[in-house]
Amino acid sequence: MSVKTSGLILAAGAGRRFGGGKLLAQLDGRPLLQHVLDLAAALSLRPTIVVLGSDADALEAACRWREEQRIRNENAQQGISSSLRLGLEHLADSKAERALVLLADQPMLTAGQARAVLDVAQDGLRPIAVPRYRGTPGNPVLLEREAWRLAADLRGDRGMSQLIERRPDLVRYVELPGTNPDIDTPAELGRVSRGVG
Length: 197
What we know:
Blueprint: E1 5-11, E2 26-27, E3 30-31, H1 32-42, E4 48-52, H2 56-62, E5 69-72, H3 80-91, E6 98-103, H4 111-118, E7 128-133, E8 136-137, E9 141-144, H5 145-148, H6 161-166, E10 171-176, H7 186-193
Parallel strand pairs: 1-4, 1-6, 4-5, 7-10
Antiparallel strand pairs: 2-3, 6-9, 7-8, 7-9
C-alpha cells in the first residue's frame, strides 16, 4: 500500500442494547473487539488508534494487543461522534495520509472487503470513501487527511453518516459483495455465530 494509511477503531460504546459488555462477548473463541484488532493488523494499518470507553480495563485484559495506541474517551456518553473526533485528533500528529475507520462491533468484516475500500484511487476531489452493501451505505469509511477536520462538527451517536448526508459531493462509493453486520444484541451475535444473516 503506497499511501500511508492509519486505522481508527471505535470501541467506546456502552452496548446498552446488548446488556453491556458487548465487545467482550465471544465469537469463535475471541472477543468481538479482537476480531477487529486482528483485521487492522492484517491490513498493516499504522498507526492504529483504538478508542475505548467504560469497558476499557476489561477489554485491555481480555484482548491480545500489538502496537495499537489505546486512548480512553471520558465523554463516550456523548455518542460515537465524540470517539471519532478524539481518535482523529490523536492521529493528527501522525504521518498518516488517510484513516480507515473501523467499528468494533463489526467482527465479520473481511480483509477483502476492507482492501476494496483502501484500493479506491485517490482522485483528489472526493476525500471520503464509503462502501455499499447491496446498495446500502455502510462501514468501514476511509477518510483522506483533508477530511479529518470535518469531523469537528459532528455530534451525537452518529458518526460520518451525518457528514455524508450533508456533503455528498465529498463522497465516493465502493460497491462491495456480501454484508458487514453490526452486532447490537445477543440475538444478532447468535445469528452470526450460526452463519445466519
